[in-house]
Amino acid sequence: MSIDVERLSFSYGTHPVLRDVSFRAEPGQLVAVLGPNGAGKSTLFRCMLGFLPHYQGSISLCGRDVRHLPRRELAHLAAYIPQSSQPLFDYTVRDTVLMGAAGGLEPLRQPGRQQLETAQRMMELVGIAPLADRGIRRISGGERQLTLIARALAQQARILLMDEPAANLDYGNQFRLLQQVRRLTEQGYTVLLSTHNPEHALRFATHVLALHGGTVAACGPVEEMLTEELLHTLYRIPLTVAQVPVTGGTVRSCVYDPAKP
Ligand SMILES: Nc1ncnc2c1ncn2[C@@H]1O[C@H](COP(=O)(O)OP(=O)(O)OP(=O)(O)O)[C@@H](O)[C@H]1O
């Protein structure tokens, strides 16, 4: 389940946001999408999901041009986890996750045992099963984010587009979520995940796609591409990337380094 984006350009009216963005992502890859506020990360996701059809260039999922993909087929290929939003209706957590599992059913068909089991499994996977009967307007922002993630996983699409999924999560849940996403990529999922935390990219991503000023500043394997220079270009603060000892070895980590020349 690959993603191919070629020479994608998009403007909101006269305001250009993406210019000539090209990249490819393959099964097994967890691509961290980095870039400062307003770089165009969410716009990229919206173009990929067909919400913003007036772009130039091409976007293909599994070799299929998204411009010509019916909604239902798109949902079969790719699941989207939006930046947190305030829900309009107070559906229960279980029903919300069930909407993902039941998305492939014919219109008006009731979800059956299989869909209920899938929803239950995904709630357990992300740790929200105890909240199943609570309304989604009456849980915390982080719990709601986990509900949206469970809903996307229940959709059982093999491409996941995650727009800052860790933004509302506590420190432990951020790492649990990213570890879980990494496991999914090891099972053959293709994941694009935007984040403002380069640490997440260093620790969990296989690849990085960095957007800056609407263009691709870097694209490729994390070890090669995620450099101090790139981080400085993106965030304009001095950061040092270093090997940090952990149990059984070392990991690359970045630290704010204000005295750095
Ligand atoms: N609906 C819209 N109409 C007009 N301009 C928009 C709209 N949505 C976003 N923009 C503008 O497009 C640019 C890219 O926004 P986008 O939300 O894609 O950035 P982002 O990288 O996801 O930012 P952030 O990290 O702050 O979430 C910004 O300049 C933003 O102001």
UniProtKB/TrEMBL annotation:
The keyword ATP-binding applies. Transmembrane segments: none annotated. CDD domains: ABC_Iron-Siderophores_B12_Hemin. GO terms for molecular function: ATP binding; ATP hydrolysis activity. Keywords: ATP-binding, Nucleotide-binding, Translocase, Transport. InterPro entries: AAA+_ATPase, ABC_transporter-like_ATP-bd, P-loop_NTPase. The keyword Transport applies. Residues 3-238 form the ABC transporter domain. It comes from the Bacteria. PROSITE patterns: ABC_TRANSPORTER_2. This is ABC transporter.
